[in-house]
Specification:
The structure is a single chain. The protein is an alpha/beta fold. It has three domains: about 150 residues, 3-Layer(aba) Sandwich (Rossmann fold); about 130 residues, Argininosuccinate synthetase, chain A, domain 2 (Alpha-Beta Complex), CATH 3.90.1260; about 40 residues, no CATH class. Helix content is about 40%, strand content about 20%. The protein is built from 13 helices and 14 strands. The strands form three sheets. Strands 3-2-1-4-5 form a five-stranded parallel β-sheet, with helices on both faces. α5 links the parallel β4 and β5.
Length: about 400
Amino acid sequence: MAKPKVVLAYSGGLDTSVMIPWLKEHYDCDVVAMCADLGQADELSGLEEKALKTGASKLYIEDLREEFIVDFIFPTLKAGAVFERKYLLGTSFGRPLIAKRQVEIAQKEGATMVAHGATGKGNDQVRFELTFMALDPSLQIVAPWKDAKWTLTSREACLEYAALHNVPVSQSKKRIYSEDRNIWHISHEGGSLEDPSLEAEADVYTLSKTLEAALDRPEYVTVDFVKGIPVAVNGQKLGPVELVETLNRIGAEHAIGQLDMVENRLVGIKSRGVYETPGGTILVEAIRKLEQLVLDRDTMREKDRLAITYADVVYDGRWFTPLRESLDAFFDAVHVNTTGSVRLKLYKGNVVSAGVTSPHSLYVQDLASFTDTDFYDQKDAIGFIRIYGLPMKVKGIVSRKGAL
């Protein structure tokens, strides 16, 4: 009789590496590993050999970079979604895509279980499991960190288990950061970063130069958008993957997009993370500049309010919901005229506006200037202010009478 199958979201990192022998030991199952290539670069090197040597029967390496950018990153960019003022959601919107493909492979392989390496203290457990529930509720979810049989309650214990079972891992007790990398960003947590009173060490930064090592001269970059979607850098049309990679290279030289923050996890725990998002930060700043030119006041303010909602939806793992789909419809409509070019100056971690143009610009130079025009009669402002300020005037009259 064939053993039951489980599809494990496999990164080759410490946790999921030890989970292959652990799942076989405790669930007597066939482990099919699945690694989603979201742009983690050389982290994929030698992964298949490692997975099979560790005990997996098969490894899927899925190139999901373009789908990631087009279907997850760009909609979030159009929404202007930023979690708690700073975080550009690099890990948050990667997990639903991984889980989606995991479900598809489970259905293809005839697996009855899906597994992930997220802990019971973090947000990723929610993002994985809500996606599993939404796309195939018949699958049994195995989450070893929350399993009663799991006794590896620290990263040190995982390292010891790996050594005992001859599982090769890259982490060591000297550099023990938990890191998640994709084409949008890289995150760093754990180790010395768990103490928010300590400055992050320079060796934390692996995707971009430190501020001290950043170029000592500014660089200009131009990004072209069509209906809210970036399509070209410095006048050269690029596909989604090449465009983000290009901006990452440019931004990394200038230490763009480095973030050290304490955030509020969905489960109620505050955690500290250091993030590097060079290309993403350039894109976020660029589209904001273009929006200032083409969006009217009321639309922009409503968009800003709903951007917070969208950020919460993404961060909390509710990607596959009617709410997110409905919000996308709103933001698609908002960006029908968000077409144009944005020029930015990059220098020592700063992204500074250096010019913006659009065929749909609402900026009228004669109207904005101090010069009188037939289009705007300044005397009209007298009546406008009288009516606009009437409630305040009435309140002032009443308050003054009460004081007499």
